[in-house]
């Protein structure tokens, strides 16, 4: 064949990964995870009051609906 080669795509195409690059990649992933977790906690700390208020409102509406249904179905 005109464009064929003896090399098949697979594991042989990539350079071997050294242990140092694996450790560096792991450290970078842990560092990035810590930063994202810190930002998530910071955002949550900024809006926790609103989340609590919304949760209480949803709970009150749900309890109101449950009591209304029981009161209406009692007859």
Automatic annotation (TrEMBL):
UniProt keywords, alphabetically: Membrane, Transmembrane, Transmembrane helix
Transmembrane stretches, start-end: 21-41, 47-68
The keyword Membrane is assigned to this record: yes
Domain of life: Bacteria
Name listed for the protein in its UniProt record: DUF4175 domain-containing protein
Species, as recorded: Brevibacterium ammoniilyticum
């Amino acid at each position: 064949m005109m464009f064929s080669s003896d090399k098949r795509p697979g594991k042989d195409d990539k350079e071997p990964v050294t242990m140092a690059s694996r450790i560096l990649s792991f450290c970078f992933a842990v560092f990035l995870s810590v930063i994202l977790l810190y930002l998530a906690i910071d955002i949550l700390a900024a809006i926790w009051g609103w989340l609590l208020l919304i949760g209480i409102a949803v709970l009150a509406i749900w309890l109101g609906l449950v009591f209304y249904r029981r009161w209406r179905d009692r007859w």
